């Protein structure tokens, strides 16, 4: 669901507007950070992807943390758009939630090159003021989109009418984002993750629905 989009290598350089230049840097940085993580990806590598000098990247964002904050905002927009598209093309909100909570999807979300890597890194960097502010603002936007999807499921009668949609959205996001913790410490992770996902889904579905 959440792969970044690569640009063809070796494209010719063209003069871009300031806005287009910033957007191109954010796109390249999103790819680099998703593939390598915040610590390993460098501003020089991002500049090389674009065929510009490293000072150009710094001139636009000031620092690596400033650029990462912009990437968090960009990644949130991509995730929100994908979530809305999935909901619009899904026959069942319950089925969509089952897909989102499945271990296969969570593994894919956190695989190198996927947007989940951006958010997992961001959670460890919230002591950096710019990144912390971006996480609080933009992950909240993603929760709002998920709350909209959950509210739609309530209107359709698939999800429990007594749910608080905002709280339910944060429950789902918490489960998705805790994958690095589970991978690091949980014995028999996949087996337990399947059961936790079923329990979470069971709390969301209307009593007439089955979590399996």
How many β-strand runs? 0
What structural class should be given to the helix and strand makeup?
mainly alpha
The low-confidence runs, each spanning 5 or more residues with pLDDT under 50, are 6-10
Mean pLDDT: 90
The ordered H/E elements are HHHHHHHHHHH
The largest pleated sheet is described as: none
Strand content: under 5%
Count of individual helical segments = 11
- Span between termini: 22 Å
Global geometry: elongated
Rg result: 19 Å
Question: Helix fraction?
Answer: 55-70%
Q: Characteristics of this structure?
A:
0% strand, 212 residues, mainly alpha, elongated
SSE topology:
Elements: H1 18-36, H2 43-50, H3 54-61, H4 64-88, H5 93-101, H6 103-109, H7 115-123, H8 129-155, H9 165-177, H10 179-185, H11 189-204
Helix pairs in contact: 1-2, 1-4, 1-7, 2-3, 3-4, 4-7, 4-8, 5-11, 8-9
Brief overview:
With 212 residues, the chain is an all-alpha fold. The protein is built from 11 helices and no strands.
Characterization of the model:
The chain is mostly helical. Residues 6-10 have low confidence and may be disordered. It contains eleven helices and no strands. It has helices spanning 18-36, 43-50, 54-61, 64-88, 93-101, 103-109, 115-123, 129-155, 165-177, 179-185, 189-204.
């Amino acid at each position: 669901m959440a792969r970044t989009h690569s640009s063809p290598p070796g494209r010719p350089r063209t003069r871009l507007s300031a806005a287009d230049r910033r957007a191109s840097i954010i796109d390249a940085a999103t790819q680099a950070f998703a593939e390598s993580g915040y610590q390993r990806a460098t501003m020089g590598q991002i500049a090389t992807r674009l065929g510009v000098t490293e000072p150009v990247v710094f001139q636009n964002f000031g620092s690596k943390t400033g650029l990462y904050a912009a990437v968090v905002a960009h990644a949130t927009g991509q995730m929100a758009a994908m979530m809305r598209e999935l909901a619009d093309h899904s026959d069942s909100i319950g089925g969509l939630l089952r897909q989102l909570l499945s271990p296969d999807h969570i593994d894919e979300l956190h695989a190198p090159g996927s947007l989940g890597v951006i958010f997992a890194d961001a959670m460890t960097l919230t002591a950096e003021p710019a990144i912390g502010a971006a996480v609080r603002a933009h992950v909240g936007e993603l929760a709002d989109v998920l709350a909209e999807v959950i509210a739609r499921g309530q209107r359709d009668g698939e999800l429990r009418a007594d749910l608080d949609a905002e709280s339910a959205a944060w429950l789902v996001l918490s489960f998705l984002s805790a994958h690095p913790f589970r991978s690091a410490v949980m014995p028999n992770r996949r087996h337990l993750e399947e059961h936790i996902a079923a329990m979470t889904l069971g709390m969301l579905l209307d009593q007439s629905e089955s979590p399996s």
